[in-house]
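User: Once you have settled down, look closely at the record that follows, taking as long as you need, and be ready to discuss the fold:
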Amino acid sequence: MKAFNVLDRNLPLFGNKSISASAGTGKTFAIEHLALRFLIEKDLLLDRPYTLDELLIVTFTRAAAKELIIRCFRAIKEALFLVKAWLNDEDLNTPLDFLKQYKEEGKERLRQIKHYLEIAIQSKSEAAIYTIHGFCAKMLQEHAFDANIDNKGVIFDNFDRLGLDRLFNDFIYLNLNEKNISASQLNKLLTQREAREHLKNEILKLSEMPYEIAKNPPFFEYLQNFKNIRKNFLSRYKVTKENVISDLKAFFIEPSRKHDKRSLIYFSELLTHLFDETKEDSELFDQFIAESDTFEDFSIYAKKAEAHSIKKKPLYYPHLYEDLNETLSKTILEASQKERILLNLAFSFKSLLKKKTEGSEYFIPDALIEKMSLVAENPSFQETLRERFKSVIIDEFQDTDPRQWNLFKKLFISPGQKGPNLILVGDPKQSIYLFRSADIYTYLDAIGHIDKEHHYSLNCNYRSNKELVGAINRVFKADYAPDFFKLPRKESSFPYESNQADETRKIKPYQDDLKAFHICLAEVKKEDLPSLRHSKDNFFEEKYFFPFLASEIIRLHTQSLVPFKDMAILVHSHTQADTISSYLKERNIPCKIPKPKSQIDETLLEDLRSILEALHELKNESLAKSALTTTLLGFEAKDLKKMEDLLFQEDVYVYLTSLKKSLLEDELGIFFEKLFNFSIEGYPSPKDRLSKQVDGDTYFMHFQGLIEILLEEARKSRLTSYDLISLLKDPFFFADPELEKELQAYFEEGKDSVIIETIHSSKGLEYEIVFAAGLYRSSNKKEAIFPSYSEENGFTLKVRNQEDPSYLSYLDELEAEKTRQFYVALTRARERVYLPFPIYEKTTVDTPLDLWQQALKKGSLSGQEELSPLLNFLEASKNEISFQYLEKAPVIVSFEKPELKPLIFTEASLYPFKRKSTHSFTSISKALHDLKEPNFECASPVEKPLLPAGIETGILLHNILENVEAFNCRNLKEIIEKRSKGTSLYEYREEIERILESSFQAKLLNFTLKDIDLTKSIREMDFLHPTHRSSQEEEYLQGAIDLIFYHEEKYYILDWKTNWLGNKKEDYEKESLIAEIEKNRYDLQAKIYREALRKYLAIYEKKPFHEIFGGCFYLFLRGTVFGPESGVYFIPFKES
């Protein structure tokens, strides 16, 4: 294949192409500059370049689509910067050869290119860069009439988990009946803890897969078959229990365990029930299904019965057992097989799902592709899209499945007709998602539609250093490992093409003599194993690899200063990941297993719910015990027994009471800090205890992230601690994808941990150091449900059957995919790969390493008999690859575990800071003056406020003022209605409206609130301000400025005050306001606000603060009803 150099001006840009993009070869760079070239180079047929909306780029994840948008526009902006510089006669150089040609053509041409680029930037919102599902959704939305769907919009991402959950609940109530499934069949599925949730997840997972589901018989069909079998038996056999027992004694294998359900007596009773005509068919068949494990040995018994009747005394029923095996046993075992029952339910649920979404704007991804494929049959729809898109780039094409490719073919390839430029970008060596329906043969079929002269490759590896690129080329060299990348369905293979290295890239030095590719050998002998049952892989890990892994990670981190997060351990499975994670954490090495989705740990939510509920109801002993035994507070059963001691009980009560006092009186952030740092006398604080636990730091980080989100929500929505309990129970709140992203970003931030992830999830990522730990392990688990492939029907989910040719073909494809996993694992590293390599006798070839060794035996190095092919390879590659024999059980090292950092909440500060304790202005003013809220019931025996006083009123009025679109009366009534509904102030709506209407007309110097442009304002600006006290620990004031606005070239601060000073006009005149200001130290508050604003404006404003700051208004809302100048207190700025 020809090299693809997107920067070369002579590269033929237009026409169909396939681009093979090996790992690390700059695939995204090529795509972004292809897009750039299409936007500035003329298509000769159109005599113009393409516009942004005529360029379609499809990739396979939302993250990849987002990155492509960012990268494409960055390339456009950089090109525009160069063009503008050249037009200004600046002599800037660039590697973009295709762009240089326009400079050579002169300024007129440059001005034309500048125009094209500016148009592209202005039309950013029209960029057609989607996932495959995003593309389908967009097209169906725009062509809703052709698609016969509601034109409100096509939703596929958020026919969300909650929507599916509700539909599943409907399905359970409507479809779980005796016709579809029996009680015993359902019990087969409900064996797990939280069985209903597990069953739901399994059915949803199967129904969302992009496969058809093979229809399996429902219960009533199996029952009908059973009835026919039983009828036949009743007509042929008349049996007694005694005779059955006599027969069974001759060949029955009595289990070793007493009272086993397979005992002779039990088995004979079960058989004689079959011939008891008083037993009802449905009830008996369901009983047989419940005891299906009893029938698993029928084939053994049938053979023994046959042999016994020939050689010894004839049996009473010599043919009965063979008949039972061939008919009844087969039906019972099939009807009781979990996977068949599950597929039957998934088939029914998927059918329901299709009916529910037909004609709707809601789609699950699978239904979305199907709908789009149907619409794509319409010739006018095809023509519309071919006219619209002039060039189509499909990224990660090796992950395409047959239906997706058929869709693209219908839309963009038409024999004999001119279609858009179709550019397929992918790498067959990285096709490792068979379980997600990715089909390497689809990739090969697709590139077969493109002339070979237009097959290109990206063959320069920019990711890995020169030494590592050379080593990987040797590993896959065709002479050494011929036919390694097999294609079982075609009975052939595809070749490996060596990559070039970036010669300008430097190799990072480490304080050792290891090569960039290092193999860790260990010979495991059968006699070394503690027992015959001990796994060789486990023994290799425990005695050789894990100790080396831990010591090497620590050495690289301490000696060569490699951050933990730049080291990755690629594993075979989540089980292996958990094992390695536990081992490293026991040695204090920070590590993490990234979650595929940022899901909030239910334990975390339950812990916080339990604690808050217990604090609100201290007299409830049950709630108190639940709170104390959470992961956070860490009590054990033995600790709870101590509560029988009255003195200890009192200690617990004092502890919980102090937390409750903080919850009700302190800022929430301060309460959470106390929660982590307070403890019962004689017990460690939660923070101290977690710092000593294996996973304590992870729990701490996640708890902190959750609290950060809750604090923000509490601030925005003015929540109480009671509201938080409700929020923690709300599945809709935590199902918000934006919230999940926010939490995930928080968990990842600043966490220096070794990454442990599967080879599949590592694709597309890169690390400085990689330990390829998943290549010597194989899966003993064979999937019971698999995607069966046929030319006629494509992929269909079926139950495993060892005699099914499609299942055997599937196993061959899985094995071939392991060779590609081998390639993906070795190409994630920038600087070094460690390949652990256990050596022991094996009778099977079932791991990626086995397959590579098998290929070596067929290669050019296999002829030297004195050495094994592996050692021959290592000898021939000693300049590129180093190796060592690992020591058995070397000295186990541990990393010194860092202390947990203090609990810190950011709360949208105005400037970077770290703090250990925070205070609100209110808490400080109370401490200074020992203020208490006035008891309005007692203040005057006659006078009461027209609008109740207190915190709830303040929260409601602030909430309304935060949400008005402008300070006028438009929509004010509706906002008051909405915000007050459900509160105790709902009946005071008219008084609230009167107060706010008058406040909008209050005279602020020479203007009113109605004159303010709210687009030049900030409402509820959070800040933190250092106290500069002499305390050794850092302390900060936290607060929120109600309103900052810009008017007539000045910035002003405005604070809403809901204080009730009386019901008369004189209560809100200047003297009364001054007294209230001094009593509550609002003058001090104004200075704090002013300093916070000064620091903020210093970031943006060049003018001195005293020239642009107008002053601070305190608007006592209740007083504004007495006139435009009533209730207004202004503090002008005076430079101190």
User: Anything to note?
Assistant: Residues 492-590+754-885 form a domain with the Rossmann fold fold (CATH 3.40.50.300). Residues 62-87 form the longest helix (26 residues). The chain is about 45% helix and 10% strand. The chain has a mean pLDDT of 82.
